[in-house]
Amino acid sequence: MPGQESKNELSDAAWVAASQRGDTSAFNRLVLKWEKPVYNLVLRMLQDPEDAAETTQEVFMRAYRAIGSFRNDSSFSTWLYRIAANHCLTRLKKRGAQPSCSLDDQDVRTVIQHRMPRQESHEHEFLQQDAGQRVREALALLSPEQRLVLELKFFQDMTFEEIADFVQAPLSTVKSRLYDGLGVLKNHFGRQKQGVQTKV
Amino acid sequence: MKTDCHVYQEMIPRALLGDLEAGRVAELEQHLAACPGCRAEQTQYRETLEHLAAVKDVPVPRHFLVPADTRTSSLGELFQALARSWRLAGALVAFALCVSATMLALSNFQFRAQNGVYAFSFGRPLSDLDASRKTEAAINALRDEMQAFVEQAIQAERQHYVALLRAELEKSSRSLSTDQRRFLELALSDVETRINQRIVTTGASLENRTARSLDALYAALQDQRARDLAFLRQSIAQTARRSEANDRQTQEVLSALLEVADLQIQGIMQ
Predict the structure, then answer these.
(1) B122 pairs with which residues across the strands?
(2) Quick check: ipTM above 0.85?
(3) Cross-chain Cβ contact A61/B66 below 8 Å
(4) What is the pTM of this model?
(5) CB contact under 8 A, A31 and B54
(6) Chain B environment of A131 (Cβ under 8 Å)
(7) From residue B208, how far is each of A17, B78, B146, B152, B214 by CA, in Å?
(8) Rounded to an integer, what is the distance from CA A77 to the centroid of its chain?
(9) Which of A26, A29, B65, B188 could form a disulfide with A18, with the two C-beta atoms 3.0–4.6 Å apart?
(10) Residue B121: partners with Cβ closer than 8 Å, 6 or more residues away
């Protein structure tokens, strides 16, 4: 909500200013406010909770060290998410290239079976997993770039233009990544649903 | 070639996200009304969006507070914080410095700073600074010594020469008349003056003749002095032996003596 955002920015501005003067407790106020959305962003990007916790801590440490360079040309949250996104992309690159699945990929099921933990039955697995876990596992099928665009669009409520500015890519590239990623998710959920229906 | 359904299926997620022009939306809806396959595709996209919307943030496993003494950043983090262009520029500068250092090392670069003199060389070994400076200083010192010696020698010889002349004339002048004695005194003074003038004039040109052998010069001076003294002694003895000295003859002799002395001095100095 726009009104809520500007209220957020006002309170953030005061804490940011204090942090820039060296007030660690003011920065920790910002940490307490933004650690949940940042942690969840990182978790959806990296999928592993331990990795996500370690990376989130690195993000806030890095933000604290660089708080002096924050110039209010964007909101504090956007600046923080940018640090988090860069950390995640770096971490994912170090892990190794993730296969990006296209809409026509016929081996998506093979990839999913390779990555997902063993389950006794698809039906049990499908019913017991919460939506967040299902989505996180589906996001693992996407390339880091596709994953980031979907995260910013569906979980950070950014517009296409804001996303293009955030990732420093053309608008057409951003849309292409989003729709391709959405297509992969659509196919994945569709096959999962088919598997459940078949078992039933 | 894409089929119509394939084209419309690509439009479905755009329409669902409000990223399709109104005219195209109407066209899509018209197609969906007649195509079950594309309607099923639309349903799958809707369910996918519902899955995404149903995701809720999980609680954090712990707090991520930063300790108070975290402000100092490592060089690596500082480097990471720089913009890409600055990182590229820094990397290029570092690469250029490494290449320069490697080339200097391979080209046997030598640098020396000694006694305020800075010298460097690529490949060729640097010459011994001290040896060349010593040689140059030694040459200058020798030149100065030679010059001083020559001046001293000339001055000493002149004084000795004049003293001897005076002594000889003093001895011989006892038999001379007062006028003759006075004439000899004037002649001697004139000779002395001419000698001094000639030495001063020649001393300036002597500085330009550094190649002449000092030994030969000194020997020549010695020899000439001996001959002059012998000649003078002989002449004065002859004059003194003549009991009836003819004034004109005496004057002629004295004039001749003066000319000889003059010429010989010219010969010495040349």
Answers:
(1) B109
(2) no
(3) yes
(4) 0.52
(5) no
(6) 51, 54-56
(7) 84, 71, 12, 17, 14
(8) 14
(9) A26
(10) B109, B110
